[in-house]
């Protein structure tokens, strides 16, 4: 049985290879993959061989935003059976470390996260995963939406960490997929005004269609203070919450300069290891600065939000390509011309 997969060997070196079909243990399920989304972290690995703490040290199957159909279940698996459609939460935490034991499995010391040196990805025909991190899809969700649940779950965790609530005035720096999903999530959570910034006008147009009340096109010649003043002028106030969803040093500086006293800066973008920031001013104004890492108990809420119609993922998905065009898909995503690309496997 074939198991064609997109294998990354190094920067810009992705190949379609036929791999052995995985053998499952008693706690796992074998999944025939249907759809996988292309993520910003995929692009970082593809472009430079590194994303945050993960450094490519050998060939790895790409992809971690997947949905598919269960074809085989392990002996201990309860609640799933062959034929079930599932969205795959792309982590397999150790369940033993301090963070797993205290309920923060997203910070697990040995997470075996998909498409990292510690865990294979799922841009492939067959993939195995621990059963309790596979979530059944309601009948009214497509496989494409099931794949896009993963970045939505990241956005929901980010908004939870940011403390979004009714009446929040919010600025989101970066109108890529995660930034736009944060806007859609915040709107569903009751945010009052949402302003988004980006350096690409087409992304801002999509942001306006999907949730942003206001947008600001950032030009390279703008100083940090000019950007701050333009945001305040458009929004009519300083934001109570600012989310950095692009991780450019300038965006992180602006986030700390623009946020209201006593407000919150939430960083969900993966930035350089060292960034120079106006930290003292932010701390003297009691601005809380928080990180958001991956997903924590938000797959269920994400699936429910899409199923109920509270969040429309179909409008968020803009491009569809087959597995054999994986390199074309990565280059398209890298260009910034697409919002969310779905790779169709089978």
Strand content: 15-25%
Taking the sheet with the most strands, its summary is: 7 strands, mixed
Kindly report the oligomeric state of this protein: single chain
Approximate helicity band? 25-40%
Rounded mean pLDDT score: 95
The helix-strand sequence is: EEEHEEEEEHEEHEHEHEHEHEHEHEHE
Number of helical elements: 10
- Structural class, by secondary structure, is alpha/beta
In whole angstroms, the N-to-C terminal distance is 13 Å
Shape category: globular
- Radius of gyration of CA atoms, rounded to a whole number: 20 Å
How many beta-strand segments?
18
Residue windows where pLDDT falls under 50 for at least 5 positions? none
List the topology elements:
Blueprint: E1 4-10, E2 13-18, E3 28-37, H1 40-48, E4 50-51, E5 54-55, E6 60-61, E7 65-73, E8 85-88, H2 98-101, E9 126-130, E10 134-136, H3 143-162, E11 169-173, H4 177-189, E12 193-198, H5 201-210, E13 214-217, H6 224-235, E14 241-244, H7 249-258, E15 264-267, H8 279-284, E16 288-291, H9 299-308, E17 319-322, H10 326-335, E18 341-344
Parallel strand pairs: 11-12, 11-14, 12-13, 14-15, 15-16, 17-18
Antiparallel strand pairs: 1-2, 1-6, 3-7, 3-9, 3-18, 4-5, 7-8, 8-10
Helix pairs in contact: 3-4, 3-9, 6-7
Keywords: Metal-binding, NAD, Oxidoreductase, Zinc
InterPro entries: ADH-like_C, ADH-like_N, ADH_Zn_CS, ER, SDH-like
GO biological process, one term: sorbitol catabolic process
């Amino acid at each position: 049985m074939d198991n064609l997969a997109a294998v990354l060997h190094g920067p810009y070196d992705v190949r379609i290879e036929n791999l052995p079909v995985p053998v499952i243990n008693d706690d796992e399920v074998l999944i025939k993959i249907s759809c996988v989304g292309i993520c910003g972290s995929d692009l970082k690995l593809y472009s430079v061989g590194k994303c945050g703490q993960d450094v490519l040290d050998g060939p790895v199957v790409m992809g971690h935003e997947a949905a598919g159909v269960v074809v085989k279940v392990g002996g201990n698996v309860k609640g799933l059976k062959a034929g079930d459609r599932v969205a795959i939460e792309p982590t397999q935490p150790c369940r033993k470390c301090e963070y797993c034991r205290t309920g923060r499995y997203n910070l697990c010391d040995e997470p075996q996260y998909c498409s990292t040196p510690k865990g294979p990805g799922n841009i492939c025909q067959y993939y195995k995963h621990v059963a309790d991190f596979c979530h059944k899809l309601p009948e009214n969700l497509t496989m494409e939406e099931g794949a896009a649940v993963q970045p939505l779950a990241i956005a929901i965790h980010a908004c939870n960490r940011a403390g979004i609530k009714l009446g929040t005035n919010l600025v989101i720096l970066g109108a890529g997929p995660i930034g736009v999903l944060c806007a859609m999530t915040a709107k569903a959570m009751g945010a009052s005004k949402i302003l988004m910034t980006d350096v690409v006008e087409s992304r801002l147009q999509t942001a306006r269609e999907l949730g942003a009340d206001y947008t600001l096109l950032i030009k390279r010649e703008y100083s940090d203070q000019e950007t701050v003043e333009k945001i305040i002028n458009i929004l009519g106030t300083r934001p109570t919450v600012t989310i950095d969803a692009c991780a450019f040093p300038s965006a992180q500086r602006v986030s700390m300069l623009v946020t209201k006293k006593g407000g919150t800066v939430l960083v969900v973008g993966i930035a350089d290891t060292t960034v120079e920031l106006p930290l003292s001013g932010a701390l003297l104004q009691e601005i809380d600065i928080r990180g958001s890492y991956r997903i924590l108990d938000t797959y269920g809420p994400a699936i429910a939000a899409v199923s109920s119609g509270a969040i429309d993922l179909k409008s968020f998905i803009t491009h569809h390509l087959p597995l054999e065009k994986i390199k074309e898909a990565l280059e398209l995503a890298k260009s910034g011309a697409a919002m969310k690309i779905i790779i169709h496997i089978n």
